[in-house]
# Entry
Amino acid sequence: MTTAELFAAEDFNEPPVEPLAPGAVLLRGFVRAQASELLAAVEAIVAEVPWRRLVTPGGQRMSVAMTHCGTLGWFSDRRGYRYVAADPHTGRTWPPMPAAFMSLAGAAAAEAGFAAYVPDACLLNRYEPGTRLSLHQDRDERDLGAPIVSVSLGLPAVFLWGTPQRRSDTPRRIRLVHGDVVVWGGPSRLAFHGVAPLAQGVHELTGACRINLTFRRAG
Ligand code: MD3
Ligand code: FE
# Structure
């Protein structure tokens, strides 16, 4: 066996667990090897619940397209932001969380020091070039002590990461690429965050888009 086979180049440059802040860690390439399997599971979910651009309580259509799996799904319409057990448009429950999703979320949380993480909701976001997500906090979950695990697939993105105190605090810019996983818990759980407009590009597995999975303990 050659040295190149023993140690992939990235193993030298990228520590597997990169602390970002108290409670937040970046696991570079954590799901790179399972990406095709995860994307097949995404396609099965999309066959049940197609990508949709939801409407905010203020009446704006979001530019990010979303779908959902798990016992609860994050939802938005004129009535507000909330988690719901059934799709308000069809009355059907969301597709179950695939086993591969459940185990990767648990393994990532464990790497970050959160034992026995069992998410009940997965929000799937799809970004096309130009799509952005403005700064917000995720606070619709009942248990804010549980972390959020996010998985990036497809085109790279610049993640904007502010403070928990003020939306106006200048966010850090963190480049997230295909296969990266970030765990956000503890003091980082209520940080303002968003995604800068996606750059043009084509990814060999997703085409001209980025797909992000966020696992949550919502109920
Ligand atoms: C930091 N999604 O769905 S994932 C969202 O890339 C959302 O699609 C982004 O923000 C995306 O709500 C970012 C990373 C993320 C998710 C939740 C967080 C970072 C977070 C909650 C608290 C702090
Ligand atoms: Fe968020």
About this structure: Residues 3-216 form a domain with the Jelly Rolls fold (CATH 2.60.120.590).
